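Progress report, Aim 2. The chain analyzed during this reporting quarter is listed below.
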Amino acid sequence: MLTSTIIHDTSIVILAASVFGSIFYFLRQPIILGYIIGGILVGPLGFNFINETDFINTISSLGILLLIY
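Predicted structure tokens for the chain:
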């Protein structure tokens, strides 16, 4: 059950990042802003689509480390 929740949450985050990244690309804005806004909207501060917040927090920390590197 936990695996299906993690896959569901990850697919929602990837879909939101793709949609908002594409929108910001066509608006000729930095794509990273689209990723951030998409993450905020699907996360606990937005519409709260994510159920497993601990896993997403771990993945987001890894993404920030890769972005800084």
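The longest helix spans residues 2-26. Residues 40 and 46 are 6 Å apart (CA to CA). These observations will guide the mutagenesis work planned for the next reporting period.
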